[in-house]
From TrEMBL, chain A:
Domain ABC transporter: 2-232
Lineage, top ranks: Bacteria, Pseudomonadati, Pseudomonadota, Alphaproteobacteria, Rhodobacterales
Pfam short name (any one): ABC_tran
Organism this protein belongs to: Gemmobacter caeni
Annotated Mop domain residues: 291-357
Protein name: Molybdate transport system ATP-binding protein
Alphabetical list of Gene3D superfamilies matching this protein: 2.40.50.100, P-loop containing nucleotide triphosphate hydrolases (3.40.50.300)
GO cellular component terms, A-Z: membrane
GO molecular function: ABC-type transporter activity; ATP binding; ATP hydrolysis activity; molybdate ion transmembrane transporter activity
From TrEMBL, chain B:
The name this protein goes by in its record: Molybdenum transport system permease
Species of the source: Gemmobacter caeni
Keyword vocabulary terms for this entry: Cell inner membrane, Cell membrane, Membrane, Molybdenum, Transmembrane, Transmembrane helix, Transport
Membrane-crossing residue ranges in chain numbering: 20-39, 51-73, 85-106, 137-160, 200-218
Role of this protein: Part of the binding-protein-dependent transport system for molybdenum; probably responsible for the translocation of the substrate across the membrane.
Main localization (coarse): membrane
Coiled-coil region: none
């Protein structure tokens, strides 16, 4: 199922004008606060009626201002996980979870037990929202949206109100959701680590417009998109399989270009991971360096060199079947004589792959 | 225990209870609707509606009673229609006393419920909508349970006001023992007669007792509701 969004809306002197497609998987709407991301999600949910637009989900028209079609929110079958959870205070967790089911007319199989188990909220069922922690509320809100049997999930920064520890608690559940439920998810975020872990498709929104859109792995390694994503946080994603779980406290993960050694990663041999490698943590060498402390060196081919306005340059590298992004100085780029097609070695500092950025790609894997 | 009040006094107490209960029960749905509309909807004439609802609070009760007589009396515009079409007569009947009590108590009821509606986060109602609940279901399953303490408070307040209503009642339906003589009218009547202070004092005690009981009941219920919502 694909969601197709095309809308424009004016509030005061701010104009939102966006069009994009969200294929199955997690589509992250990424942008600064105030760029209009939440407005897009509210329009998809039917909580906002845009001036002009057309929204189609899996062939059904949710909104079309041309034909004056406006499906009210309760008939859209769109699950919405709000940033502030919005649990019903007068109902228990169990009643909150079953709320949507009252109106869903039991279309699908009974997956209450499965969802409760997947989110780890079994022990909370008899409590009321007032007695839940922030992280618990988020998980219940997630479960409530899933159990309303939506054809599409919307998540508006579901982690933004949580501290780092709670985020780390929820992220594995979101990954399981993405991999197990086969629901298209539209996910609003302004956090690069979340994008790197969750996104299959990325839509970059800047001041009410789509600045770039495409598969997340492509966009994250695209030098042209990097300034919009934030240079400091620019970085590509490599997928890797855990080969050796533990050797001297290190794990070996194999990606398409070769092996990488990382501080021990929890998991079993064969588990898949998404590795985020920040552009500023990649060094380049024209010949394979010897006598260097870095453990991870991948052979690569230069695809594109993009000079920035300042002293920096972004280099896109093809390594194995995937792309890497390196951020170096213009001076180094000139000194190395970098040009497309050139064979090169990318040196990754072992510490550059942070633990929180090691996400699971395989259903049912344990959390890192 | 019936000895300490005379049959006429009992009739006044019973009539007052009947009038007040009917007044509150019949006006409650309208009270909730009006409070919700004033709190949540934007429409033309909202200020006018707000003014009309609050008018009985500000007008001298005698004026309200007289206006009721003009409108719902046998010769009144609405009264004539009710009489001819349905055979309903309000003037100088206990039903008229109930109408007068309802009109006088209405602003208090609406104010209490409106405050409760305004305290409900509309975001919760939006969330219920995205979960598949239509507007009426959102109201029944989310808004109504959350405003219940306010509805109870408004109901008790309106009941107490109805029990004490005097000016509009005596103007609209007079003071006929056994028919329209409510508790306050009876107290007034006793005070008009030399030596009636004793009877009046007994009725005053009854009035105080009923008011206190109503107040304590409402406290108890709203605490129970609050505990349910905040509970673990």
């Amino acid at each position: 199922m694909t969601l197709s969004v095309n809308l424009s809306h004016r509030f005061g002197d701010f104009t939102l004008d966006v069009a994009f497609e969200a294929p199955p998987g997690v589509t992250v709407l990424f942008g600064r606060s105030g760029s209009g991301k939440t407005t897009v999600v509210n329009a998809v949910a039917g909580l906002l009626r845009p001036d002009h637009g057309r929204i189609i989900a899996g062939g059904e028209v949710l909104l079309d201002t041309e034909t004056r079609t406006f499906l009210p929110p309760h008939r859209r079958r769109v699950g919405y996980v709000f940033q502030d959870a919005r649990l019903f205070p007068h109902l228990t967790v169990r009643q909150n979870l079953l709320y949507g089911r009252w109106f869903a007319h039991r279309r699908g199989p009974d997956n209450f037990a499965r969802v409760v188990d997947m989110l780890g909220i079994g022990p909370l069922l008899a409590r009321r929202p007032a007695a839940l922690s922030g992280g618990e509320k988020s998980r219940v809100a997630l479960g409530r949206a899933i159990l309303s049997e939506p054809r599409l999930l919307l998540m508006d920064e579901p982690l933004a109100a949580l501290d780092e520890a709670r985020k780390a608690e929820i992220l594995p559940y979101l990954e399981r959701l993405r991999d197990e439920l086969h629901l298209p998810i539209l996910y609003v975020s302004h956090s690069m680590p979340e994008v790197a872990r969750l996104a299959t498709t990325l839509v970059l929104i800047e001041a009410g417009r789509v600045a770039a859109a495409g598969p997340a792995t492509e966009l994250l390694s695209d030098p042209a998109a990097a300034p919009a994503l934030g240079l400091r946080e620019a970085g590509a994603i490599l997928s890797a399989r855990l080969a050796v779980p533990d050797e001297d406290g290190l794990s070996r993960l194999d990606c398409s270009a070769g092996p990488l050694w990382l501080p021990r990663v929890a998991g079993r041999a064969g588990d898949s991971f998404r590795l985020r490698i920040l552009a500023q943590d990649v060094m380049l060498a024209t010949s394979r360096p010897k006598g260097i402390s870095a453990l991870n060196i991948l052979p690569a081919v230069v695809r594109e060199v993009r000079l920035g306005e300042g002293p920096g340059a972004l280099v896109q590298l093809e390594t194995g079947d995937e792309m890497l992004l390196a951020r170096i100085t213009r001076r180094s780029a000139a000194a190395l004589g970098l040009k497309p097609g050139q064979q090169i070695h990318a040196v990754l500092k072992a510490v550059s792959v942070a633990q929180e950025n090691v996400g699971h790609g395989r259903p049912g894997a344990d959390s890192p | 225990m019936t000895d300490w009040l005379s049959p006429d006094e009992w009739r006044a107490v019973a009539l007052s209870l009947r009038v007040s209960l009917w007044a509150v029960a019949a006006s409650l749905p309208f009270g909730i609707l009006t409070a919700y509309a004033l709190a949540r909807w934007e429409f033309r004439g909202k200020q006018v509606l707000n003014g009309i609802v609050h008018l009985p609070l500000i007008l001298p009760p005698v004026v309200t009673g007289y206006l009721l007589l003009l409108t719902f009396g046998r010769k009144g515009a609405v009264g004539q229609i009710l009489d001819q079409l349905f055979g309903i007569v309000l003037a100088f009947r206990w039903t008229g006393a109930a109408l007068a009590a309802a009109v006088m108590a209405f602003p208090l009821m609406v104010r209490a419920i409106r405050l409760a509606v305004e305290a409900v986060d509309p975001k919760l109602e939006q969330a219920a909508g995205t979960l598949g609940a239509s507007r009426p279901w959102v109201f029944l399953t989310v808004t109504l349970p959350l405003i219940l303490p306010g509805v109870l408070a408004g109901t008790i307040l309106a009941f107490a006001k109805a029990m004490g209503e005097f000016g509009a009642t005596i103007t609209f339906v007079s003071n006929i023992p056994g028919q329209t003589q409510t508790l306050p009218s009876a107290i007034y009547a006793f005070l008009q007669v030399p030596g009636g202070e004793k009877e009046a004092a007994r009725l005053v005690l009854v009035a105080v007792g009923i008011a206190m009981a109503a107040l304590m009941l409402s406290e108890w219920i709203s605490r129970a509701v609050a505990r349910r919502i905040a509970g673990t």
